[in-house]
Structure formats: structure tokens, C-alpha cells
Amino acid sequence: MTRSTVLDWVEEYLDLRRALGFSMDTPAWYLRAFARYAEQVEHRGPITLDLATRWALLSHSSDPAQAARRLAVIRSFARHRAMIDPATEIPPPGLLGRVPRRKQPHIYSDVEIAELLQQASHMLPRDGLSSRAYVAFFSLLVSTGLRLSEACRLTCSDVDLDRGLLTIRESKYRKSRWVPLHPSATQALIRYAAYRDAVLGGDPPIFFFRTERVPMLTPAAVEKAFARIRRRLGWSSQGRARRDRRSARGSSARHRHRPHTSAAAGVFFRRRLVAECGASAHTIASYRDTFELLLRYAEKHSGRTPSALNLEDLDAPVVLSFLDHLETERSCCPRTRNLRLTAVRSFMRYASVRDPACLPVAQRVLAISGKRFDRPVLGFLSHEEVQALLDAPDRTTWSGQRDAALFAVMYNTGARVSEMIRLRVADVLVDRAHAVHLHGKGRKQRVIPLWKSTVAQLHTWFEQIDRQPQAPVFPNRAGKPMSRSGVENRLRVAITKASLRCPTLRGRAISPHTVRHATAMHLLRSGVDITVIAMWLGHEDTATTHQYIEADLAMKEAALKRMDAPSSQPVIFKARDR
After folding, report:
1. Known active-site residue 32
2. Can 517 be counted among the known catalytic residues?
3. Is 60 a catalytic residue?
4. Per-residue pLDDT reduced to its tens digit, 359-387
5. Close Cβ partners of 271 (under 8 Å, ≥ 6 residues apart)
6. Per annotation, catalytic residue among 70, 516, 517, 522
7. pLDDT tens for residues 175-217?
8. Is 516 a catalytic residue?
9. Residue 106 main-chain phi, psi, to 5 deg
10. How far apart are CA 39 and CA 35, in angstroms?
11. Among positive and negative, which fits the CA dihedral 271, 272, 276, 277?
């Protein structure tokens, strides 16, 4: 069996980090250079502090902080290796100085922007595509505030010049969004696109910004072009480095005995979750499902029964393998993977406090980070689509009357589906005060007022059901509360019927939570303060409610109208044969 080299460890680490959603472009360059250095000096065994420090000091850069940057990359890699090989030495933070943070940005004035665009128009060849591409590119950055990489990756299909709308796909943290364009910016891009197509001819290009030689403007090329323009204008770099953030890492202890997983898990559920935290039944059920899956996997992996498993049998490599098993074999999404990891991390924190001998295993598991995932643009229903949904149920039947009242209360209150199926007759006030008492997430309660039309529907519906205080407001045929799947099924039936009247509903994935999003968006567009919307929806923090502002394209367009577009000379196409 061949001995693994440092380069093998580096490639394994890079594969793991990239699987978690990190790009690792710059760290990969540093780490491979470190692996080549370790091979040159014929290093054997785990990573040592002396090896990492000697490589970091080999930097030929004039920047005194470059050695600290190189050592910081090795420190992250060494922390990963320490989970596998405890003999690995981790460089302490700040050993070679602080790593400067990003400099404060310089805000360009209108005069500077005009000078920048003028110099960009003089780029050689002046009558070629490059100068016009860079003028349009820099103008777009100024008018929209896009990141450099976002503008470079724009394809022709992402730029809708008819509607004046940009689609930014999988940007930072893999989030997507729409960006409206000012009419003047749209006209400038139309002129550039017409000139580009006339120069290139043939099939339309894939990327929106390109030159005669390259099919896409890369961030490196744009930075190089901007540096040339800056030198011509005599501009210098501005800003100052921020203070570094220091972090401390606790020391580890060796194993002295092997605590059993079954005993620790039993105490965790009975004492930690139930007695100390008072967790809800839903939280306990979620943690129970996680441990049921994890223990089954560990039993298959180690060949021991769950009652015979030790805590070291749930070390970081096993947990990482279990998380991969959830995605590859059980087809779980990254959100579910992170939810299972949260339960395991909570257990490891409690186990490390209860028994210090568990610290090494717990620290390695707690070092596992959550996986990043795509964040698409928030989906919601328009007023016309909501009205079509509310009119869809057949009110001549018992289930149709229930569905009509259910959808009306869902839209009126913006309640979660779990709050709707737990609603009792005593929670609905329809006699004097028109309101509903919701028992929300995290055991928070709130009272939401009702429209008169919603109250009228509830009065009619109450004549069809049991009026006992603890009876469910929306029962199924057996008189029991509806299930989540039951609500989703009735919503699908209503959407199918409503799509005949409103074609925009066809082919869309609409869940009960989409109705909740519609309530929030309509409140926001009506001018309701975001803190009131957070209270209405039962959000713990207004940062959660802020996602509706990001999804509101009309609000972005209104903000764009308040800003003046940068002035630029129109480009007039002249045929070369005249």
C-alpha cells in the first residue's frame, strides 16, 4: 500500500471544500505550491509548524503581509488534517503578522466617471469592438452596481433589452436576482449590441460583452484594462486596511475512556432537549429521525449494533460520509443535509460539556461546515393569481366550502401551513373582534385581524362543522385536523382549476408557503412597514423579512427612477464600405 503524499491530502481537501460549495481557486494555487515544496524537501509524516512557516516565508512578494496570507491558507488546511491525523501541528493565528482586510472603497464622482468612459472610448483600436465593449461594460457597472464577475458572466439570454431587465444567475452565495435597467442604460446597451452583431456577423454570441478576439470579457482582462486607464488618468490606489479579526482555538485532550453513544444520546434527549431546552415535539421528532438515520449508517459502517457504538465511532470522517450518503443515496437536498448536521452538532456540543474526554471527537465534528446551496428568486402570486385561487373551490360541496375558507384565511393572515392545521375553533374570534389567534413557530403566539369577507366565509363554514372550542377549524372527512399533505393536495386541485382562468399559474410549483409569500409581498407593496410585516408573519428577526424587499422588482424600479443615468455619447453605426 503506497503512502499518501501531501499533494494527495491537498486534492482530497479541495474536493471536500468544493463539494461544500466553495470555489477554492486561490487556496488551490497556494496549497499545491505547498505540496510541491514538501515534496522537494522530502518531508514525511504529518504537517508540522516548521514546514508551514518555512514555506510561507519563501514569498518573493514585496508585500510584507504576503507571508501571513500564505500561512493563513495552510492553517485552514492543517485544521482539516488535524481531524484525520491528531499529530498535525496547526499554526497559531497571527504568527507572521496580521492579514489585512479589504480596503475601504473609493466612491467615484460624476467627473471621474466621465473621464473613465472617455478614456475607455479611446482604447485601441478606436473603431473596433473593444472600446465600445468597455464603455458599455463600465457604464453598466455604474448604473446598476453589479459585481465585476456578475457583469462578465452575463449571457445574451440574461439581458432582456425589450423589458429592460437583467437576470443575475448564481451570484455570490449562489443567489439569483433580477436587476431593472434605466431606460437610458437600456438604449445604450441596444446600441452596443447592434454594433457588436454588425461587426461579428454570423450566429449571435453567447456572452453579452466580448471583443473581436475573445468571446468573453474576463475579470482579469477588465482589471488589466482599468489599470491602464487609471495610469493614464494619474489615479492612485486609495483606502486603508481594516483591523484584523483574531480568533482563538482551544487545545485538545487525549482520549482517556470511550463513552457509549447510546448512553450519551439518551441523556441528550431526556435532559437536554426535554428538561433543559423544553424543545417542541416537532424539534424532538426531527432530531430523533436524524439519529435514527445516523446510527443505522454507523452500524453498517462499523459492523457494531447501535447499543455497542462508542462516541469515537461518530468521528468527523463518519459524519462526513453520512452527510454524503444523505445526498447521493437518499437524494436529500443541501438544506436537509444542513438540518441533519445541525442536530449532530448540537449533540456533540452537549457531549463535550458533559464529558471532557469527548472534546477531540466533538471539536472535529463541530469543524464541519454547512453546505452552501442555490438561493433562487423568491416566488409569489400576483393579486390576479390570488383572486383566481380564492374563486377556484366549488362552494356547492362541503370540501369546496372548507377549501375556500382555508385559502381565504391563509392569504389574510399569511400563516404557515403548520399554524393552519393546528387552528382550533376557540382561536377564531368572529363575534365581536374579527381576528384569529395563531400558535406559531418557536411557540410564539400572535393575533392577526381578519377582513369582513373572511369573517363572512368563516361564519358560513362554521355552520358545517363541530363548534366545540377544541375542534379543528379545517377538519378532514374523518373530523380530524388536516395534514400538511392534505392541504398541499387541495391546493394543487385549486391551482389546476384556477389555471384555466389565469394562464400564468400553469406549470408553476406553488406550495402553501407561496401564498404566505404573496401576503407579505402585497403588504410590502401597500406601504406597510417591514417591522409590521415581520410581526404579521411571526418572524423572529426583520432580516428574514428583508428577503421580500430583494424580491420586489417594482420597488427596485422605483429606486432606479430616482437615480440619474450616466451621460454617454451615442454610438452611430457607419458602414465600412462607404
Report:
1. no
2. no
3. no
4. 888 899 999 999 988 877 778 898 999 99
5. none
6. 516
7. 888 888 888 889 889 999 999 988 888 777 899 999 888 889 9
8. yes
9. -95, 130
10. 6
11. negative
